[in-house]
Design brief:
By secondary structure, the protein is mainly α. 98% of the residues lie in helices and 0% in strands.
Length: 81
């Protein structure tokens, strides 16, 4: 009976160690997945910000060109009067 109890305790310890190993591995995998999502989100946000900046610069450039054209047109009208 003592050897059965000893074997059972050994099995219990081994099972506990294995379960802890599985849990630790699962936690580590989850942490890595969360980090990858966070990194991806940062990259996506950065890319979106860069694109917004490019579009804003393009819109400012177009507005500046139209303003320049309007000022030139106004100046030409003044010259003809």
């Amino acid at each position: 009976m003592a050897s059965f109890k000893k074997s059972f305790e050994s099995l219990k310890g081994t099972s506990h160690s294995a379960a802890k190993g599985v849990t630790d591995t699962a936690v580590q995998a989850a942490q890595e997945a969360v980090q990858q999502v966070a990194d991806s989100s940062k990259e996506t946000a950065n890319t979106a910000a860069q694109e917004a900046g490019r579009q804003t610069q393009a819109a400012i450039g177009k507005a500046a060109d139209k303003t320049t054209d309007a000022i030139k047109g106004f100046g030409q009208k003044l010259e003809t009067k």
